[in-house]
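Researcher: Structure prediction, please.
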Amino acid sequence: MSRVSVDTDVCIGAGQCALTAPGVFTQDEDGFGAVLPGREDGDGSPLLREAARACPVSAVRVEEA
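Model: Predicted structure follows.
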């Protein structure tokens, strides 16, 4: 199982996480990346690592639990 987070201090709002794995990520009201409520475990999405790679500032973190 994976633990997913977005470092809001680093995020620039590029939206690549939400485009790559829309079942796990969204953009908040300010346009920054966010993990959807209840999806902090990554929901088994095979796209988590791709979303982390797609982030231009490496704000998406995927940690194995």
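Model: The mean pLDDT is 93.
Researcher: Thanks, that helps.
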